[in-house]
């Protein structure tokens, strides 16, 4: 009995506090972004904030449910949960409902559920389960391929449903793999590929080749291992140039116009003023409105429900993906910095707790949680501030939406449960 | 190490984001200004502009509604060429106009409203009003334009026009497309007349739809109507003055000496104030502005500086008495002029020797040359004498701006010792160098209003009120400076002999032919030589005709200065016109119809054409008077019949 009592208070209250702060502040901003006229009924189901009231209420039920299950349950049923998630994603091809061109929702009466939001924690569980297996060694190619298969299966299914944004999130697991022993060369290659892509698009093939060649030549003459031959360097250079060319082909032929334009805006590729003007009314519209709303907030912000651009609904999708611009306008530099600090604190706290875990499963899972939250936060906030090309993914705990909120809550609270159990795991 | 990758990434991203937020919100952010906020529609409510009445309560300027199509460039939805064409047809502009106007508005500011098509007619407005919703970024702003109830007094009343960018930069009250007084009382009493516009802040959504008042309307203001004003002008006298000035160039200023109120302020040629209202305004304004020969926008009653000529002699007489260098009975001889050194200042034949009274009414140059020398030479050096003289002259309001409520003015010129020090070197000049000052030529320049004011000061026997145009402002008193007398440096007792001289000008002197029965007029004729540069050569033109007067002799009701360019000798045009104005004002009717007929029947246009004819021409005595065409005479008669019967 005594043990039961103490265990109940083993939960990491700081994490829970940060979670509550984010959800609460998110709710305040959804209220501002979606209210029409005076707010009379917080349960007005015809408006997003009314629904969000219900979603948040149900979240606490969900939390109690998650915390009351045995910690072992999650490890034991990780594979089954993952398989259910994959099946639910597959089911979308048959029963799914098209919303804004993406087939990512199940419609149940007037409610919709987006399984990709739940697939994230399922994948995190599966990855944790696989890596924590005693026989797994992340340094071997065999295991690398297998974990890759675990994350790319849901990622590709989601991509096929036309939800490119949610697909990108699965790249977050790279951090997990790296933590668990993936060779450094992957990190270098990943960074090199990102730089190559940007250089190739922004400055063209010739300049990119010159840059790549210069780096490799310098590297060749300062190399420590004399054994590596010139041929290997030439091969790397050829692959680099080939990749740079491939990026251009991909950009020009595979990407859809709106995706091209988002990247073009981000890298400022478009010079034709007439075309830019057209983009301002289309792809760049959200971005411009969002940046303007944030800038107009100034240091202190305009105050709750006082944001003129928010009240006027100038930023489309403001209560979902662009919710951060509401914070920027109404709460100013103070409020938006606070949100950044809250997220950083939450992620750092999860990382800190993960490293304290006794079981590898818990640690890997915790890392997965931190990585997913990190990528969501970085992409969403970066996009709203105009630092990153437009990618439609929600801000965890903040954005309007039941599936998203629940998905992230489950993701986080499974970890809170695992963490609370670390004392029993020897 | 491996543990640190994600941790450092998280912290780094956090720092970058906060830096970005700082850049957007604090560094690049600006003080929130609701006027800059495109989410808030600003609806201006323009108040009624104050009416303008003449001194007798006759309405001169009222208002009429006008509708401007305004544009906020960044809110304009792209239209295809068919839509643009349709829109252009509604607005009666060409497609090129459309793009030019839009570019200009964008160039000014993409987010602030600019006028797109100004001053639509009521008909166009009615058609447009219903279709306007279709064109995002465009809206109709109601304003009030002037409606002149008269065809006279353009130079007095002035006009209103769109503010330009430099005004907006200086006075943020004004927004693009607002109207502001540009000339005349519209300019000087702009703040009184315009009132304060009201403003309503309305929250918009991104579809440009109004969704309610901003901050529950707590920031909204109601318009404050402009105040009506009454100006000192007697519109009948003004109309009569303008009629007399027809086909001539010059200025007439009539002042009420007991108050400094300007009764008439005529500049010829004049124009109909209605030309500067409505869509034709800028076209008409340009036409007036570009007329560099007749210069209708140049207010000759306020801005034209002429050598004052003989009327100036009265001041020299007053100074001489004040300085006690002559008495009224001191006599000087005149044998067709005044000799100094080996030079001579000419004079016309008349009796000699000359005392003060004769000197004034015969306008004897020799007499005033002697008097002037005595004034200057009273002091040890010409410089001291000159400064003392200059001080006396300036006390009559000459040589400086009058500092009144007229939108334009000129200081004129009165020399002092330093003027000659600069020209000749200190102590290297003598009284004779400056002798032209004795007869109002040389370095002296004055505007008609300064001369009229001088006449008022003489008529008042030693003081004047700053000439002004404002008589009454609704619920306000007029500035104190207009109701405080300004004293000249001449003692009261010295005026009587000079005034007697001026009275004799009418009785038996240069103006005896323009007497008006029953009114004791005191005046002084004047003639000013003038020159123009024609083909690089300084060429003399026919003299300007000048007349300065006040009446009646005791307790004067009107002081007047008349200037007629190239009108030849003083009494020929200016003297006649002065007498007619005086009679019209005091009696309300004209008994000397012979004078009137002479002035109305004759034109000086041929005189003004001479310098541009490229042919040799005669001046003064060699000129012959020309009469107006019968059609013009009929027009003149029609106008004459309407004055006072409106």
From TrEMBL, chain A:
The keyword NADP does not apply. It is found in: Membrane. It holds the Pfam family FTSW_RODA_SPOVE. Keywords: Cell shape, Membrane, Transmembrane, Transmembrane helix. The keyword Transmembrane helix applies. The chain crosses the membrane at residues 13-32, 53-71, 77-95, 147-173, 185-218, 230-251, 331-352, 364-385, 397-416. InterPro entries: FtsW/RodA. It is a multi-pass membrane protein. This is Rod shape-determining protein RodA. It comes from Winogradskyella alexanderae.
TrEMBL record, chain B:
Keywords: Carboxypeptidase, Cell inner membrane, Cell membrane, Cell shape, Cell wall biogenesis/degradation, Hydrolase, Membrane, Peptidoglycan synthesis, Protease, Transmembrane, Transmembrane helix. Its main location: membrane. SUPFAM superfamilies: beta-lactamase/transpeptidase-like, Penicillin binding protein dimerisation domain. It comes from the Bacteria. It is found in: Cell membrane; Membrane. GO terms for molecular function: serine-type D-Ala-D-Ala carboxypeptidase activity. It is an enzyme of class 3 (hydrolase). It is a single-pass membrane protein. Its EC number is 3.4.16.4. Residues 46-209 form the Penicillin-binding protein dimerisation domain. Gene3D superfamilies: DD-peptidase/beta-lactamase superfamily, Penicillin-binding protein 2a (Domain 2), Penicillin-binding protein 2a, domain 3. Residues 250-575 form the Penicillin-binding protein transpeptidase domain. This is Penicillin-binding protein 2. It comes from Winogradskyella alexanderae. The gene is mrdA.
């Amino acid at each position: 009995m005594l043990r039961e009592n103490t265990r109940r208070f083993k939960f990491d209250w700081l994490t829970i506090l940060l979670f509550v702060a984010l959800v609460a502040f998110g709710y305040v901003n959804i209220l501002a972004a979606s209210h029409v006229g005076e707010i009379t009924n917080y349960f007005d189901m015809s408006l997003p904030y009314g629904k969000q009231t219900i979603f948040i209420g149900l979240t606490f039920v969900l939390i109690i449910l998650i915390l009351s299950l045995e910690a072992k349950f999650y490890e034991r049923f990780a594979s089954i949960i993952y398989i259910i998630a994959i099946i639910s994603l597959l089911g979308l091809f048959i029963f799914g409902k098209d919303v804004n061109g993406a087939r990512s929702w199940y419609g149940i009466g007037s409610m919709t559920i987006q399984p990709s939001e739940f697939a994230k924690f399922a994948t995190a569980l599966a990855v944790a389960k696989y890596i924590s297996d005693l026989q797994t060694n992340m340094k071997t190619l065999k295991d690398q391929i297998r974990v890759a298969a675990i994350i790319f299966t849901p990622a590709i299914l989601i991509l096929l449903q036309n939800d490119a944004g949610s697909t990108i999130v699965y790249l977050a697991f790279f951090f997990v793999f790296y933590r668990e022993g993936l060779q450094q060369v992957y990190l270098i290659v990943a960074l090199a590929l990102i730089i190559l892509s940007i250089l190739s698009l922004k400055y063209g093939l010739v300049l990119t080749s010159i840059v790549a060649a210069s780096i490799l030549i310098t590297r060749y003459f300062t190399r420590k291992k004399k054994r590596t031959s010139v041929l290997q360097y030439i091969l790397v250079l050829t692959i680099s140039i080939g990749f740079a060319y491939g990026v251009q082909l991909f950009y020009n032929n595979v990407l859809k116009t709106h995706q091209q334009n988002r990247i073009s805006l981000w890298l400022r590729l478009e010079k034709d003023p007439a075309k830019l003007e057209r983009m301002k009314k289309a792809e760049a519209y959200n971005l411009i409105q969002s940046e303007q709303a944030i800038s107009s907030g100034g240091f202190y912000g305009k105050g709750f429900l006082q944001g003129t651009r928010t009240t006027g609904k100038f930023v489309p999708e403001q209560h979902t993906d662009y919710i951060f611009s509401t914070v920027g306008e109404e709460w100013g530099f103070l409020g938006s910095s606070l949100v950044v600090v809250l997220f950083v604190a939450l992620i750092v706290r999860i990382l800190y707790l993960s490293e304290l875990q006794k079981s590898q499963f818990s640690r890997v899972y915790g890392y997965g949680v931190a990585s997913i939250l990190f990528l969501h936060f970085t992409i969403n906030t970066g996009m709203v501030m105009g630092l990153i090309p437009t990618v439609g993914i929600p801000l965890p705990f903040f954005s309007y939406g039941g599936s998203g909120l629940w998905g992230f809550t489950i993701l986080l609270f499974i970890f809170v449960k695992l963490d609370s159990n670390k004392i029993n795991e020897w | 190490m491996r543990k640190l990758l994600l941790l450092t990434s998280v912290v780094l991203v956090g720092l970058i984001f906060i830096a970005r937020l700082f850049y957007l919100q604090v560094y690049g952010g600006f003080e929130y200004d609701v006027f800059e906020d495109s989410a808030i529609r600003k609806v201006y409510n323009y108040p009624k502009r104050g009416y303008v009445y003449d001194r007798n309560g006759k309405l001169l300027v009222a208002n009429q509604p006008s509708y401007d199509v305004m544009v906020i460039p960044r809110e304009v939805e792209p239209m295809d060429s068919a839509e643009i064409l349709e829109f252009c047809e509604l607005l009666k502009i060409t497609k090129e106009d459309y793009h030019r106007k839009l570019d200009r508005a964008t160039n000014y500011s993409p987010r602030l409203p600019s006028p797109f098509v100004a001053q639509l007619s009521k008909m166009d407005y009615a058609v447009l009003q219903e279709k306007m919703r279709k064109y995002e970024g465009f809206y109709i702003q109601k304003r009030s334009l002037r409606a002149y109830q008269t065809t006279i007094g353009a130079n007095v009343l002035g006009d209103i026009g769109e503010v330009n960018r430099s005004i907006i930069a200086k006075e943020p009250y004004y927004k693009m497309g607002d109207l502001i007084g540009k000339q005349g009382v519209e300019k000087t009493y702009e703040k009184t007349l315009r009132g304060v516009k009201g403003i309503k802040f309305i929250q918009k959504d991104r579809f440009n739809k109004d969704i309610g008042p901003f901050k529950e309307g707590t920031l909204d203001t109601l318009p404050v109507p402009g105040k009506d004003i009454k100006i000192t002008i007697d519109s009948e006298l003004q109309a009569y003055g303008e009629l007399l000035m027809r086909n001539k160039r010059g200025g007439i200023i009539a002042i009420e000496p007991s108050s400094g109120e300007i009764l008439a302020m005529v500049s010829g040629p004049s124009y109909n104030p209605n030309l500067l209202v409505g869509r034709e305004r800028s076209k008409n304004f340009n036409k007036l502005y570009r007329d560099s020969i007749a210069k209708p926008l140049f207010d000759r009653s306020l801005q034209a500086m002429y050598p004052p000529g003989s009327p100036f002699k009265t001041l020299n007489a007053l100074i001489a008495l004040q300085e006690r260098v002559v008495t009224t009975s001191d006599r000087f001889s005149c044998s067709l002029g005044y000799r100094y050194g080996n030079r001579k200042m000419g004079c016309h034949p008349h009796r000699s020797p000359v005392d003060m009274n004769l000197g004034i009414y015969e306008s004897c140059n020799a007499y005033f040359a002697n008097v002037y020398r005595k004034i200057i030479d009273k002091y040890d050096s010409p410089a001291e004498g000159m400064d003392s003289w200059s001080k006396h002259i300036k006390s009559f309001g000459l040589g400086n701006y009058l500092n009144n409520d007229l939108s334009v003015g000129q200081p004129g010129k009165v020399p002092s010792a330093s003027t000659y020090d600069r020209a000749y070197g200190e102590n290297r000049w003598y009284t004779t160098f400056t002798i032209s000052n004795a007869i109002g030529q040389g370095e002296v320049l004055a505007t008609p209003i300064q001369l009229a004011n001088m006449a008022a000061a003489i008529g008042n026997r030693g003081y004047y009120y700053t000439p002004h145009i404002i008589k009454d402002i609704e619920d306000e008193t007029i500035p104190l400076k207009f109701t405080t007398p300004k004293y000249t440096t001449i003692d009261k007792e010295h005026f009587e002999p000079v005034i007697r001289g001026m009275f004799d000008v009418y009785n038996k002197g240069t103006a005896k032919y323009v007497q008006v029965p029953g009114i004791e007029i005191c005046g002084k004729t004047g003639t000013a030589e003038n020159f123009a540069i024609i083909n690089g050569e300084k060429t003399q033109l026919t003299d300007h005709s000048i007349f300065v007067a006040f009446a009646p002799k005791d307790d004067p009701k009107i002081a007047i200065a008349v200037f007629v360019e190239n009108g030849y000798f003083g009494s020929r045009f200016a003297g006649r016109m002065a007498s007619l104005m005086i009679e019209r004002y005091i009696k309300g009717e004209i008994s000397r119809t012979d004078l009137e007929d002479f002035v109305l029947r004759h034109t000086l246009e041929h005189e003004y054409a001479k310098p541009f004819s490229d042919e040799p021409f005669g001046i003064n005595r060699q000129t012959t008077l020309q009469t107006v065409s019968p059609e013009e005479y009929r027009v003149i008669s029609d106008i004459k019949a309407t004055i006072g019967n409106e």
